[in-house]
């Protein structure tokens, strides 16, 4: 009986420990085994810790500067899984969360990859995360140097290359990340969210819970542009065979509309004009005699504003 009770106790302890998640340590100056198991053996690379972390885990990050990558790939970002709690502001000796001092021990997440102090090659967005059904936390960091300035006309205006210079959040679950005790300095986005952007679907707005955060010298240009009051489109089926349908709401849009289809070399292969003004349009575009592959489509209004753009696959 004693053996049975001992076994049940151990199983309960293991299950409780698993449910509470692990604690992973990150310290840019650690010289140990680089396993993340302790401050002495901490990961020296934050990206490695985030890759290892799973929902329910905590990641403690000591003072220093951390970047999404050590090369020139601007599309790489720190990827925070839903349900992971990310804390900065440690000296690298603490045993309890309450012992840290995030104001004194600056933990900086920087987009200044590539050439130092040259914003033109900075990361498009520093940190990417998705909402989850479990609590996700970002607490105790300074975000600086994110530069979501992608000018590709075929990339969505809501992509993380054009929005959310510091943090880009994609809505998938029901619990939004909590962002606390963070500073956002000198981040930029070509479209929306110079510091933080939440993607909940084209044109939809969501708010994150911020607590005790500071914003300085962040900028986006999207608010300055004259975007249509309501112009959302969808393409289906995608992939398509010989015909695809493009439909959307076009309230307050200036007609006629111009639909163009380009191949991978940016050669124009199809074009059509939609002249009939209506609050909703639905048109079919023929893909007959086009080679199999990926095409870029673009929809402009009469004033040459880009209403929508994206990719269309022919299979």
Notes on the protein architecture:
It is a single chain. With 315 residues, this protein is mostly beta strands. It has two domains: 23-224, no CATH class; 232-314, Macroglobulin (MG2) domain (Immunoglobulin-like, Sandwich). The protein has two helices and 25 strands. The strands form six sheets. A six-stranded parallel sheet has the order 1-2-5-8-12-16, with helices on one face. The protein has a five-stranded parallel sheet with strand order 3-6-9-13-17, with no helix packed on it. A hairpin with a 6-residue loop joins strand 19 (232-236) and strand 20. The chain is elongated, with a radius of gyration of 24 Å. The chain starts with a helix and ends with a strand.
List the topology elements.
Blueprint: H1 2-20, E1 23-26, H2 46-52, E2 58-62, E3 64-66, E4 78-80, E5 85-90, E6 107-110, E7 127-130, E8 137-139, E9 142-144, E10 147-148, E11 167-170, E12 178-180, E13 183-185, E14 188-189, E15 196-199, E16 210-211, E17 214-216, E18 219-220, E19 232-236, E20 243-249, E21 257-262, E22 268-274, E23 280-286, E24 293-300, E25 306-314
């Amino acid at each position: 009986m004693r053996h049975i009770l001992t076994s049940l106790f151990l199983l309960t302890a293991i299950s409780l420990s698993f449910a509470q998640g692990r604690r992973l340590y990150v310290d840019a100056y650690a010289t140990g085994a680089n396993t993340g198991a302790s401050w002495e053996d901490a990961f020296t690379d934050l990206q490695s810790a985030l890759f290892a972390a799973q929902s329910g885990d905590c990641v403690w990050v000591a003072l220093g500067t951390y970047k999404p990558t050590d090369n020139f790939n601007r599309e790489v970002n720190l990827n925070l899984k839903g349900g992971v709690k990310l804390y900065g502001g440690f000296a690298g000796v603490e045993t309890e969360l309450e012992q840290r001092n995030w104001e004194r021990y600056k933990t900086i997440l920087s987009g200044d990859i590539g050439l130092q102090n040259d914003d033109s090659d900075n990361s498009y967005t520093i940190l990417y995360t998705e909402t989850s059904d479990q609590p996700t936390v970002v607490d105790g960091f300074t975000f600086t140097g994110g530069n979501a300035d992608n000018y590709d006309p075929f990339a969505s205006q809501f992509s993380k290359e054009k929005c959310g210079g510091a943090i880009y959040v994609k809505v998938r679950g029901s619990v939004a990340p909590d962002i606390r005790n963070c500073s956002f300095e000198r981040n930029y986005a070509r479209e929306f969210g110079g510091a933080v952007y939440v993607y909940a679907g084209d044109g939809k707005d969501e708010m994150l819970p911020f607590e005790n955060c500071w914003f300085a010298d962040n900028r986006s240009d999207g608010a300055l542009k004259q975007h249509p009051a309501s112009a959302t489109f969808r393409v289906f089926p995608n992939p398509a065979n010989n015909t695809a349908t493009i439909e959307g709401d076009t309230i307050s849009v200036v007609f006629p509309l111009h639909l163009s289809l380009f191949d991978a070399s940016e050669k124009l292969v199809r074009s059509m004009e939609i002249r009939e003004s209506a609050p909703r349009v639905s048109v079919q575009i023929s893909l007959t005699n086009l080679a199999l592959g990926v095409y870029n489509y673009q929809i402009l209004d009469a004033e040459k504003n880009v209403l929508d753009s994206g990719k269309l696959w022919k299979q």
